[in-house]
Design goal:
Largest sheet: 8 strands, mixed
Structural class: alpha+beta
Radius of gyration: 19 Å
Distance between the termini: 40 Å
Order of helices and strands: HEHHEEHEHHEEEEHHHEEEE
Shape: globular
Number of helices: 9
Bound molecules: aspartic acid
Length: 328
């Protein structure tokens, strides 16, 4: 009697571990993780209403991706759907509401990677594309290239029937204020420091995908390109592992963060948690690189470390229940 209760308990605990992100090797169940950037998000700076608005938008993005996965769609489609919704929201630093360059312009970067096919598409320095993640996907699927920048990328969009939007579409008062503050060396308000968006997903057929979209850093030099469109740095997916990063891009480029996490798991046999934590909580911290990642492996294990005060993040699985968090 006692022994059977113990066995049931052990099984139950084992199940709980798989759901809560400790490494398991069970068969894949679909998963979608999104982030909305990492940064200084001191509670006193985010009002309850702001916090609710961020969470509601993350929730909508998770549900959008969930619908794709739940209908048997691909992780690639789920990643794109979730990111597009976040790009359309002025709250996040991607698409509308992008952080502004020192010249007051929006220059957008994005990338997407299909881990199963090991294909990737990326765009950088866009000024007139409403959904950079959609154009990144067109680069992947309709050209022999991986990355297109600026006018050449926008020409592809036009060729493929994707309408251009005016610069003004991207510019919000909030981001203009944040730029003025940075230029006057005043600390920026919560949520305007980072706010890049990204997603990683595993579909019911075990295929992984990752994507990231951003306006980059407030007050960046015109022409600066961050890690988000760089495959291996801000975004990476293969057959076993998918990562999307957010933070001070230069550090993520120099440390090839997304790829390094997957490589450590693959070559050293590190668990996803160990690999992601060591990169974000030790290596980047030692160098002063602020930020975080969302990572997912083919078994559905999840890691979401960040070394900032908070990271907008959320997760949804087959039960359709979304878990959304900002702080530790
Ligand atoms: N990583 C992005 C960049 O450096 C910014 C961010 O994640 O907030 O462009």
């Amino acid at each position: 009697m006692h022994r059977s209760i113990l066995v049931v308990l052990m099984l139950w605990v084992g199940h709980g571990e798989a759901l809560h992100g400790q490494d398991s090797t069970s068969r894949p169940r679909f998963q979608l993780i999104v982030h909305g950037g990492a940064g200084a998000l001191r509670a006193r700076h985010l009002t309850a209403a702001q916090e609710a608005a961020f969470k509601a938008t993350l929730y909508s993005a998770l549900r959008r991706g969930y619908d794709v996965l739940n209908e048997g769609g691909t992780s690639l489609d789920a990643v794109q759907a979730a990111i597009q919704l976040l790009e359309d929201s002025p709250l996040f630093n991607a698409g509308r509401g992008a952080a502004l360059t020192s010249a007051g312009t929006a220059e957008l970067d994005a990338s997407i990677m299909d881990g199963h096919k090991r294909k990737a598409g990326a765009v950088a320095g866009l000024k007139r594309i409403k959904n950079p993640i959609a154009l990144a996907r067109l680069v992947m699927e309709r050209t022999p290239h991986v990355m297109l920048a600026g006018e050449g990328a926008e020409a592809l969009a036009q060729e493929q029937g994707m309408p251009l939007v005016p610069q003004a579409y991207f510019l919000t008062e909030e981001r203009k204020r944040a730029l003025r503050k940075v230029q006057n060396s005043v600390p920026v308000p919560a949520g305007s420091e980072y706010g890049t968006v990204g997603a990683v997903a595993l579909d019911s057929r075990g295929r992984l995908a990752a994507g990231t979209s951003t306006g980059g850093l407030t007050n960046k030099r015109p022409g600066r390109i961050g890690d988000s469109p760089i495959v291996g740095a801000g975004t990476y997916a293969d057959e076993t592992c998918a990562v999307s990063a957010t933070g001070a891009g230069e550090y993520f480029i120099r440390n090839v963060v997304a790829y390094d996490i997957c490589a450590r798991a693959r070559y050293r046999g590190d668990s996803l948690n160990v690999a992601a934590n060591d990169m974000v909580l030790r290596k980047l911290v030692e160098q002063g690189g602020d930020g975080g990642v969302i990572a997912l492996d083919k078994h559905g294990n999840v890691a979401m470390p960040f070394n900032t005060e908070g990271m907008f993040r959320g997760r949804i699985g087959p039960d359709g229940k979304a878990a959304i968090q900002i702080y530790e």
